[in-house]
From TrEMBL:
Motif position, 'KMSKS' region: 582-586
Residues annotated as binding ATP: 585
Protein location: Cytoplasm
Gene Ontology cellular component terms for the protein in this record: cytosol
Name of protein: Leucine--tRNA ligase
UniProt keyword annotations, A-Z: Aminoacyl-tRNA synthetase, ATP-binding, Cytoplasm, Ligase, Nucleotide-binding, Protein biosynthesis
Example of a GO biological process term: leucyl-tRNA aminoacylation
Length: 821
C-alpha cells in the first residue's frame, strides 16, 4: 500500500488544478448561478485559524454547487487599506505598502495550500490603483448627488489610532473597535456620506432579506432606530422663539416640569452671554470635553447640568418651566432639545432629584397610585392619564394619537418620524487609505477631481510620520495641486477614506475585475449578482453589512444595476477560541494553520474546523481534534488501498446473502441524502458524521463476509464524492485510484434512491409514564397494534407495569410507545 503522503498529494493537485484552469468561473448558458462569497481578509498578518474556518465553509458550498450543475463564482481578494494594515506595518517597522503586499503573498500561499477553489484570475486588492480609482469614482458620484458632504461635527477621536471613527466603529462602552482605547470628542471639519437619506429604505427592505439571520436584522433595525412620535414647539419666554423637540411619548406632555438643551446647542450661548451663569456653562462644557456621547448617555452616568436663566412655555397647558443644559442631551440626536418628564423618564427623574426640580405624575399604574414625593424611580410604563386636561381617565397608549391630533389642530406641532442612525463619517486622518478626490481652491472653493484625472494616486515612496500621523499634509508634491476649474494654485484633501468604503462595493468588482472603463460590467453583474451566499462574522452587522446595503442602493439609483440588495443569504460564523479565550497576538494563543498543514495536512485541518460544531456557534480549538481528523483520513486511505482495490481485482468474490448488499446500498443512499441535506442547511459537522458512518459501514461490509463488487464500488465512490468538498486533496487522489476517470470535483453530485434511502428498520422507544425504559428494533412498516404488542413484551418495561393497571397506551407511529399506569 502506498504511503498517505499528504504533502506530495497536496503539491501534486495544486499544480494540476492550476495547469488545468480548474475552478474558473465560466458562464454556461441555461444553467442557474451561485455566487458564493466569504468576506475578504485584512492582510495585516499571516492567515489564522479563523480564516481557515470561514473560508472552508465557503469552499464546501462552492464545490458542492459546481457539482450540482450551477455556474459558480467563488472569488477572493484583500481588504488592504485602512488601520489594520497600517498598524501592522508600524509594528513591523515596514512601510505599509511593502508590509501589506508581503502579507498578501503570505495569506495567498496559505489559501492555495488549503486547496480553496477560488477563481484566482479575479483576485483583487483594494490598495491597488486599478481598484481604488473606482472607489474614488463612487465618491464623486456621491458628491454629485449631494450624498457626500463636509461639515463641522463632534467626532469620535481615537488618540491611539490618531483618527476619527464613525459611530459604528465605537463600542457601547466608548472604546475604539480597533484598539480598545477610550475615544474622546473632538470638533472637526469632516466628510460624511448621507446614509440617513436611505434610512427608510434600509429599514423597509429588511423584510425581503429572508435568508439573513434574525439576529443581524434586529441589530440593524436597532441601529437605524426608527421611532414614531411628535415634534412639539415650546416657546422661549424671553424672546418668543419656538424651540422644537421630538418625543415618542406625547402622552406625557402634561408632565413636563423642565426643559433641556444639549451643551452644544447654539441657543445655550445666546441665553448665557453676559449673564451670571456664563462661567458656569463654560466650566460645565470643559468637564464634558473629554466625555464621549456614549459615556454621556450611559444610564449609570451621573446627571449634570446648569440652569440657563430662562423658561419655556408648554403649549398644551401653558406651564412655565425652567430651561437647563444637561450632559445626557446630545446635539446630534433629535433636535438637541428635550422636554423633561421626571415622573416618567428615569434620566429626567435623576436630574430632577439632583437639582430639586418638581415631579408631576400624569400616568398612574394599575393598582396603587403614585405619589410624586415618594417615588424612588420613574414610572415608564403605560397606565391611566391624570392631570392631563381632557385626557384624564383614558389609557395613555390610546391617547397618543389624540394628543397628536390636538397638536396639529392647534399648530403646536405635528406627527414625526425620527431615526437613531447618523450620517457615516468617512474621512480619516491616516495615510494608508484611498485619497479623497477633492481639491480646495481659494477662488473656486471645493472642487471635485475630474473623472479623467482619476485615480488620485497615494504616494507610496514616503516615510510615515511619528505616532501614526499622516505624512500627506507635509508632502508638497501631493498636497499642492492645480485647480481643475481655474488652473490656479490649490491644495488637495489630505484625509483618506474609511476602509469600509473600499469593502462596500468589492463584491461588484469581482464580476469584471480587469475592467478599465467602469467599476464593473453591468451586463455581467446582472448575470452573476446579487451574491447568493455571503459568509462572515456577526461583528460586521452594523458596519460592513449596513454600508454595503447603502452602497448597493446608491448604485441602483445611479441606474447601473437592477437590484438594490447585495446579499440574498447570509451565514454568520462563530468564533474559534483557544482554552475558552478569544485568540489574540497579545495573549500568545493564536493558532496558525501553517504548522498543522505541514504536520497533518490541509485536508485534516479543513475537516476538523468543519466537524467542530455548527458554523454559527463559537467553538474551542483542540489539537487532538485535528489529529483525530487525520486518523479518519488515514482510515479512508486504507479503505481504498487495502480493502477496496484488492477486492476489485481478480475473480469476483462470492455474493453472499442479498440482505447484506441491500443493507449496504441502503446505508450508501441514506448517506448521500443526509449529506446533501446537511450541506444545504450548513450542518457541515453532521454531514461529516454521516460520511464517517458510511466509512464504518464499508469496513463492516467488507469484514462480515462476501461482497458484491458493484455494491462496494457504489459505497466507496460515494465516500470519495461526499468527502471531496470537505477534503479535496485526498478525495482527488483516491478518485484517481478507485474512480471511473476524470476529476472528482468535475463529477455530478451523487443522487439517491428514495426507496433505498428509507431505512428498513427503526428503533422504538418504550416509555412507562413518560420515562424511557427500553428500546427495540422493529420493521419500518410496523403497525400501531404491533407496536403496542412489542412494547408489552419488553421485559424492562414489564417490570414497571407488573401488577398495576394500565390506563392507556400512547403510540407515536414509528417512534415510541408510552405505557401510562
Amino acid at each position: 500500500m502506498p504511503e498517505y503522503d499528504h504533502k506530495a498529494i497536496e503539491t501534486k493537485w495544486i499544480e494540476r488544478w492550476k495547469a488545468e484552469g480548474a475552478f474558473r468561473a465560466e458562464w454556461a448558458p441555461g444553467r442557474e448561478k451561485k455566487y458564493v462569497l466569504v468576506m475578504f481578509p485584512y492582510p495585516s498578518g499571516q492567515a489564522h485559524i479563523g480564516h481557515v474556518a470561514n473560508y472552508s465553509l465557503g469552499d464546501v458550498m462552492a464545490r458542492y454547487y459546481r457539482r450540482k450543475g450551477y455556474n459558480v463564482l467563488h472569488p477572493i481578494g484583500y481588504d488592504a487599506f485602512g488601520l489594520p494594515a497600517e498598524n501592522a506595518a508600524i509594528s513591523s517597522g515596514l512601510h505599509p505598502a511593502k508590509c501589506t503586499r508581503d502579507n498578501i503573498d503570505l495569506i495567498t500561499d496559505d489559501l492555495k495550500r488549503l486547496g480553496y477553489s477560488y477563481d484566482w484570475s479575479r483576485e483583487i486588492s483594494t490598495c491597488e490603483p486599478e481598484y481604488y480609482r473606482w472607489t474614488q469614482w463612487f465618491f464623486l458620484k456621491m458628491y454629485e448627488r449631494g450624498l457626500a458632504y463636509k461639515a463641522d461635527a463632534i467626532t469620535n477621536w481615537c488618540p491611539s489610532c490618531g483618527t476619527v471613527l464613525a459611530n459604528e466603529q465605537v463600542h457601547a462602552d466608548g472604546s475604539c473597535e480597533r484598539c480598545g482605547t477610550q475615544v474622546v470628542p473632538r470638533w472637526l471639519n469632516q466628510w460624511f456620506f448621507k446614509v440617513t437619506e436611505y434610512a427608510e429604505r434600509l429599514l423597509d427592505d429588511m423584510d425581503r432579506l429572508e435568508g439573513w439571520p434574525e439576529r443581524v436584522l434586529t441589530m440593524q433595525r436597532n441601529w437605524i432606530g426608527k421611532s414614531r412620535g411628535a415634534r412639539v414647539d415650546f416657546t422661549l419666554e424671553s424672546t418668543g422663539e419656538k424651540i422644537s423637540i421630538y418625543t415618542t411619548r406625547p402622552d406625557t406632555l402634561y408632565g413636563v416640569t423642565f426643559f433641556l438643551l444639549a451643551p452644544e446647542h447654539p441657543l445655550v450661548d445666546v441665553l448665557v452671554s453676559g449673564a451670571e451663569r456664563e462661567a458656569d456653562v463654560a466650566a460645565f462644557r470643559e468637564r464634558l470635553s473629554q466625555s464621549t456621547s456614549f459615556e454621556r448617555t450611559a444610564l449609570e452616568t451621573e446627571k449634570d447640568g446648569v440652569f440657563l436663566e430662562d423658561y419655556v412655555i408648554n403649549p398644551v397647558n401653558g406651564a412655565r418651566v425652567p430651561v437647563h443644559t444637561a450632559n445626557f442631551v446630545l446635539m446630534e440626536y433629535g433636535t438637541g432639545a428635550v422636554m423633561a418628564v421626571p415622573a416618567h423618564d428615569q434620566r429626567d427623574f435623576e436630574f430632577a432629584r439632583k437639582y430639586d426640580l418638581p415631579v408631576t405624575v400624569v400616568i398612574q399604574p394599575p393598582g396603587n397610585a403614585l405619589v410624586a414625593r415618594e417615588m424612588t424611580e420613574a414610572y415608564e410604563d403605560p397606565g391611566v392619564m391624570v392631570d392631563s386636561g381632557e385626557f384624564d381617565g383614558a389609557r395613555s397608549e390610546q391617547c397618543k394619537e389624540a394628543i397628536c391630533d390636538m397638536l396639529e389642530a392647534n399648530g403646536w406641532g405635528e406627527r414625526a418620524v425620527n431615526y437613531r442612525l447618523r450620517d457615516w463619517l468617512v474621512s480619516r486622518q491616516r495615510y494608508w487609505g484611498t485619497p479623497i478626490p477633492i481639491i480646495y481652491c481659494d477662488r473656486c472653493g471645493t472642487v471635485p477631481v475630474p473623472e479623467e484625472d482619476l485615480p488620485v494616486l497615494l504616494p507610496e515612496e514616503m516615510p510615515l510620520a511619528d505616532g501614526g500621523k499622516s505624512p500627506l499634509p507635509l508632502e508638497e508634491s501631493f498636497h499642492n495641486a492645480a485647480c481643475p476649474v481655474c488652473g490656479g494654485d490649490a491644495t488637495r484633501e489630505t484625509d483618506t477614506m474609511d476602509t469600509f468604503i473600499d469593502s462596500s462595493w468589492y463584491f461588484f468588482r469581482y464580476v469584471s475585475p480587469r475592467d478599465r472603463d467602469a467599476p464593473f460590467d453591468s451586463e455581467n453583474v446582472r448575470a452573476w449578482m446579487p451574491v447568493d451566499q455571503y459568509i462572515g462574522g456577526i461583528e460586521h452587522a452594523i458596519l460592513h453589512l449596513l454600508y454595503a446595503r447603502f452602497f448597493t442602493k446608491v448604485i441602483y439609483d445611479l441606474g447601473m444595476i437592477d437590484f438594490d440588495e447585495p446579499f440574498e443569504n447570509l451565514l454568520c460564523q462563530g468564533m474559534i477560541t483557544k482554552d475558552g479565550a478569544k485568540m489574540s497576538k497579545s495573549k500568545g494563543n493564536v493558532v496558525a494553520p501553517g504548522a498543522y498543514i505541514d504536520r497533518l495536512g490541509a485536508d485534516a485541518l479543513r475537516l476538523y474546523v468543519l466537524f467542530m460544531g455548527p458554523p454559527e456557534i463559537s467553538k474551542d480549538w483542540s489539537d487532538a481534534g485535528v489529529e483525530g481528523a487525520r486518523r479518519f483520513l488515514s482510515r479512508v486511505w486504507r479503505m481504498v488501498h487495502e480493502r477496496f482495490a484488492p477486492l476489485m481485482e481478480g475473480d469476483a468474490p462470492p455474493a453472499g446473502p442479498a440482505s447484506r448488499h441491500r443493507a449496504m446500498r441502503s446505508m450508501t443512499h441514506r448517506a448521500i441524502m443526509n449529506v446533501t441535506r446537511d450541506i444545504e442547511q450548513f450542518a457541515f459537522n453532521t454531514a461529516v458524521s454521516f460520511i464517517m458512518e458510511l466509512v464504518n459501514g464499508v469496513y463492516h461490509y467488507i469484514s462480515d463476509g462476501a461482497v458484491d463488487r458493484e455494491v462496494l464500488a457504489e459505497a466507496v465512490l460515494a465516500v470519495l464524492q461526499l468527502l471531496s468538498p470537505f477534503t479535496p486533496f485526498i478525495a482527488e487522489e483516491l478518485w484517481s485510484v478507485a474512480g471511473t476517470g476524470g476529476r472528482v470535483h468535475e463529477q455530478p453530485w451523487p443522487s439517491w434512491d428514495e426507496d433505498l434511502a428509507r431505512p428498513e428498520e427503526v428503533t422504538l422507544i418504550i416509555q412507562v409514564n413518560g420515562k424511557v425504559r427500553d428500546r427495540v428494533t422493529v420493521g419500518v412498516d410496523i403497525s400501531k397494534d404491533e407496536m403496542k404488542a412489542r412494547a408489552l413484551e419488553c421485559e424492562n418495561a414489564l417490570r414497571y407495569v407488573e401488577g398495576k393497571d394500565i390506563r392507556k397506551i400512547i403510540v407515536v407511529p414509528g417512534k415510541l410507545v408510552n405505557i401510562v399506569i
